[in-house]
């Protein structure tokens, strides 16, 4: 009887963890998509050159955005099962995807007046490893150069 109660308790916690984790992940994705639409006007490139050959740079400076996202137990259990059978660990793919997109958004939010961001780079690392070197949290750092362009000259300026 005790084993059955423990099993029901475990399955209840597992179900609650899954439901709350899915809810939090969906809410975060919704926030990311809304903010990506808001910041779409700042083009971002991994190239080193400014977009638009005839544009003159007025100012440029280094900008960063970072985020740390923790792995929930349900994803850790799914990843453990995937280790047995092999294949893509989809539970971690969404975690890293959310972290990268959030870091880029935070980078853009740090320079709202920039015309574009060039030389964008992303660094990913795992921190706070748990038992048996399991991933505890993922940190993503996005950095690049925010470029401010001189306004184009018009016929009225001449």
UniProtKB/TrEMBL annotation:
Top-level taxonomic group: Bacteria
Q: Which InterPro entries match?
A: UPF0145_dom_sf, UPF0145_YbjQ-like
Q: Which residues form a coiled coil?
A: none
Q: Where are the membrane-spanning stretches?
A: none
Q: Which family does it belong to?
A: Belongs to the UPF0145 family.
Identification of the protein by name? Heavy metal-binding domain-containing protein
| Organism name | Candidatus Electrothrix aestuarii
């Amino acid at each position: 009887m005790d084993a059955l109660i423990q099993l029901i308790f475990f399955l209840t916690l597992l179900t609650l963890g899954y439901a709350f984790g899915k809810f939090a992940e969906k809410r975060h994705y919704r926030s990311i998509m809304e903010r990506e639409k808001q910041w779409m006007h700042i083009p971002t490139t991994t190239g080193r050159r400014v977009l638009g050959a005839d544009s003159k740079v007025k100012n440029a400076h280094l900008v960063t955005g970072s985020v740390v996202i923790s792995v929930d137990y349900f994803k850790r259990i799914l990843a453990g099962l995937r280790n047995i059978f092999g294949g893509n660990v989809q539970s971690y793919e969404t975690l890293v995807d959310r972290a990268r997109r959030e870091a880029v958004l935070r980078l853009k939010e740090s320079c709202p007046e920039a015309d574009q961001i060039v030389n964008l780079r992303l660094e990913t690392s795992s921190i706070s490893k748990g038992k048996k070197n399991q991933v505890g949290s993922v940190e993503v750092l996005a950095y690049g150069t925010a470029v401010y362009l001189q306004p184009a000259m018009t016929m009225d300026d001449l």
